[in-house]
UniProtKB/TrEMBL annotation:
<dbReference type="Pfam" id="PF13379">
    <property type="entry name" value="NMT1_2"/>
</dbReference>
<comment type="similarity">
    <text>Belongs to the CmpA/NrtA family.</text>
</comment>
<keyword id="KW-1003">Cell membrane</keyword>
<protein>
    <submittedName>
        <fullName>ABC transporter substrate-binding protein</fullName>
    </submittedName>
</protein>
<dbReference type="InterPro" id="IPR006311">
    <property type="entry name" value="TAT_signal"/>
</dbReference>
<dbReference type="InterPro" id="IPR044527">
    <property type="entry name" value="NrtA/CpmA_ABC-bd_dom"/>
</dbReference>
<dbReference type="GO" id="GO:0005886">
    <property type="term" value="C:plasma membrane"/>
</dbReference>
<keyword id="KW-0997">Cell inner membrane</keyword>
<keyword id="KW-0472">Membrane</keyword>
<keyword id="KW-0813">Transport</keyword>
Length: 388
């Protein structure tokens, strides 16, 4: 996607510059109104090179996408959440995996006609720190990188910091005496070298960037985010409203392919890692990708080992309880940008407007039922969140 205008995304000011953009919310709002007609009618997939995107990529590699529905071309790689979200709202791509808090922002702040069709995965992220850091209190007076303001990474990191009497700050230098930690937005691909040269003390991000720090011995995983919020959703599958309204059969096919790909990954994670590497879907080295998909529980200490926090889960059902708890958590999260839209949101009502789960319910039925993914048959759950 070269030669396209670089617009900023979602949060304004200095944070946009950090995310790779130049302008503000108004630019994105205007961009969101542009209908770039896809004359081929075939859905174009966009993704970030992280293991979270694996279902979209394995579906392509394994030929699971229905011919004529999804483009046979390789999914399009973007380097930052800002550029991926921009490409999606400006109709350069038609379906993406997107940070769920960002999906809420797109729908309710920018009024972009987006719809969540399924979860892409659960867990899969961690807080990685410099080797000398053994206690979160040592982060006081330092910078920690996050991939995007409205991300589950930022939300859970701030829950962790507060649980250890640390104060997250934005656009303010961190102070050891005041126990503040400065948060900065950084593209995932820039985090590993930044930690290696010690310009940051840690980062919270999706894999395989945590595994990369471990494999290269430049950092260590301090906390898997799944040990704070059990089986939380990070990335979700987004499409535009008009796909559902005008081409429901295409939405059905797309979600069915993703669910089938999730099953394939769960059946053989090592093989999936090899496909992601050999097919050049992910640019990271195979050892890091394989490690991310197959973390061994015995290699880490957990507060909740029964939660299997290290396990990157591939299951598609979007639980309403999670959406509600997420919106509530967003209220307590510091960001560099417009938060006023949250005041208009009823946490209990967001799910119904954002999510259409009819396609994923049909796909689950077609692929053996919820039990094949270890899900309760009634598709309900209670959120378990415990910062330590």
């Amino acid at each position: 996607m070269t030669g396209l205008p670089r617009r900023s995304l979602l949060v304004g000011g200095a944070a946009l510059a950090a995310a790779g953009g130049l302008a503000g919310i108004a630019d994105l709002a205007r961009a969101a109104s542009i209908d770039r007609t896809n004359t081929s009618g075939q859905l174009r997939i966009g993704y970030l090179p992280i293991t979270d995107s694996a279902p979209l990529l394995i579906a392509h590699a394994a030929g699971l996408y229905e011919k004529g529905v999804v483009s046979a071309a390789k999914p399009i790689l973007f380097r930052s959440w800002a550029s991926l979200a921009e490409a999606f709202v400006t109709r350069q791509v038609d379906a993406v995996h997107m940070l769920m808090p960002t999906a809420i922002q797109l729908r309710f702040l920018l009024r972009s006609p987006v719809r969540l069709l399924s979860w892409n995965h659960t867990n899969g992220s961690a807080l990685t720190v410099a080797p000398h850091i053994t206690d979160l209190g040592q982060l006081a007076g330092t910078q920690v990188a996050i991939p995007f303001w409205w991300s589950i990474h930022n939300i859970i990191l701030q829950q962790l910091l507060r649980a250890h009497d640390l104060v997250p700050v934005v656009r303010t230098s961190a102070s050891r005496s005041a126990r503040t930690v400065e948060l900065i937005v950084m593209s995932p691909s820039d985090m590993v070298p930044a930690l290696a040269n010690r310009s940051i003390s840690g980062y919270v991000v999706a894999d395989p960037f945590n595994a990369m720090a471990q494999v290269r011995k430049i950092g260590r995983i301090h906390t898997f985010l799944g040990d704070v919020w059990r089986d939380h959703a990070c990335c979700v599958v987004l499409a535009h409203d008009d796909l559902i309204e005008n081409r429901p059969e295409a939405a059905t096919s797309l979600v069915g392919s993703i669910v089938a790909a999730q099953q394939r990954i769960n059946a053989d994670r090592a093989a999936a890692a090899s496909v992601l590497s050999a097919g050049a879907y992910l640019p990271q080295p195979l050892p890091a990708i394989k490690t991310a998909l197959t973390y061994r529980q015995q290699d880490y200490r957990f507060l909740h080992p029964q939660w299997q926090p290290q396990r990157l889960g591939y299951q598609p059902f979007p639980f309403p309880s999670f959406t509600r708890r997420l919106v509530e958590a967003m209220h307590d999260t510091v960001v560099d940008g417009d938060r006023r839209f949250l005041d208009r949101l009823d946490p209990a009502a967001v799910h119904a407007e954002l999510v259409d789960d009819s396609f994923v319910r049909a796909a689950l039925t077609a692929h053996g039922g919820p039990e094949t993914f270890g899900l309760p048959s009634n598709l309900t759950r209670t959120e378990q969140v415990q910062p330590r």
